[in-house]
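Take a minute with the sequence and C-alpha cells given here and flag any C-alpha cell that looks odd. Thanks in advance.
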Amino acid sequence: MNVSLRAKAAAAVLTAGLCLAASACTNSGNDSAGSDKGTASDNTAAAQQTATPTASASGPACTYQTYGGGVPKLDITDGKTIVGFSQSESTSNPFRATETKSIENEAKAKGVKLIERNANADVNAQNSQIEDMIAQGAKVLIVAPENSDGLGPALAQAKAKKIPVLTIDRTVTGTACGDFVAFIGSDFYGQAQIAADDLGAATGGNAHVAILTGTPGNNVSTDRTKGFNDEVKKKYPNMKVVASQTANFTQTDGQKVMEQLLQAHSDINAVYAENDEMALGALQAIKSAGKTPGKDIKVVSIDGTQQAVQDVASGALVADIETNPRFGPLAIEALQNLYGTTGVPADVIIKDGHFTSSNAKQALSQGLVY
C-alpha cells in the first residue's frame, strides 16, 4: 500500500453516491449512538474507499421499490425512524470496536436514531437480538453477521415485516435485494492471495506452512483459506501447507493452537493467520517455543490492527493486509441511497491497504491503523 497516495485520495467522493468518512477507534455501548463527540471525519486518511462502487459492477442497484417486492419509503435521518445495528462479536477485538464506533459516530452525525445489540460470537443470540430490535420498532437493520448461514430465522422475520437488512464485513446466505439489501466488505479471497505472495517472498518460495483459520461457517474464513491455498498451488510448488486448523479468530485460541501445531510439526517455518488476533497469539506461541518470529518462523496476517502493524514495523510479522472496519459512512449512505433514487449495488467491495516493512512506520505515524 502506498500510504501517501491513500491519504491524498481519502477525501474523494465515491461514485454511486457512497461518501467517504472515518471514525474514532474506541469501545462501544450497547443500546444507542455513542455519546462522545467524535464525528465521521475524525481521520479521512483512514476512511474506507470502494473498489466496486457502481451498480453496473454487480447488477442493478437495489432501491426500496425493488427490495423484496417493495418496502415503505423511509427517511432514516428524521430522528424518529429506528435503525438497528447488530454486532457479531465483542468490542474487545479492535476490529469490532472500530466498526461499532464508526456506525455510532456516523449515525450521530447524520441524526439517525440508532439502537444496538452485541451477540458476543453467539449466532443464536444474534438471531434473538435482531428479533428483539424488530419488536422495539427497528425499521431497517445493519447487520455484521456472526456467520453466513445461521441468521435464517431473523432474516425471515425481517423479510416478512418488510424490514431491509444491510450486511457489512460478512455475507449471509440468500439473495441480494431480496433477503438482504447488499454486502459491504473486503475482497477476502484477494487478501489471502496477497498473504500467500508475502510468505512466498519472505521464504524464497520454500516453506512448511501452518494456517490458522477463522471461525467455521462464515465466508471470510472460507475465502481466506481458499485464496491462500489457490495462490500457493498456482505459484509456489515448494511451499507446503503442513497443518491447517481453526483458532476461531481469537488470540487465546491462536496461541493454544499454534503451540499444538509447533509440537506436532517441528518443521513449520511459516504461518498464515487469517486475522491479527490469531497472529498475535501465534507470535506468543512461537516465542514460548524458543523461536524468533520473523527469523525462524515467518508470519503473515490480515486485519491491520495497531499492534500487528507495530509487529510488522519491528520485523516480527512479515506483512499485514488491512481489513478496514470503518463502515459507518458507507453503511449509512447506502441506506440513504436505498430510500432514494440512486440505489445500492449488490456488492460494495472496499479497497484495503497492505502494510509491509517499507510503510508500516509511516502508516502508524499517519493514524491509518486501528
Observations:
- The two ends are 16 Å apart (CA to CA).
- Residues 82 and 137 are 6 Å apart (CA to CA).
- The chain has two domains: 3-186+325-353, 188-322.
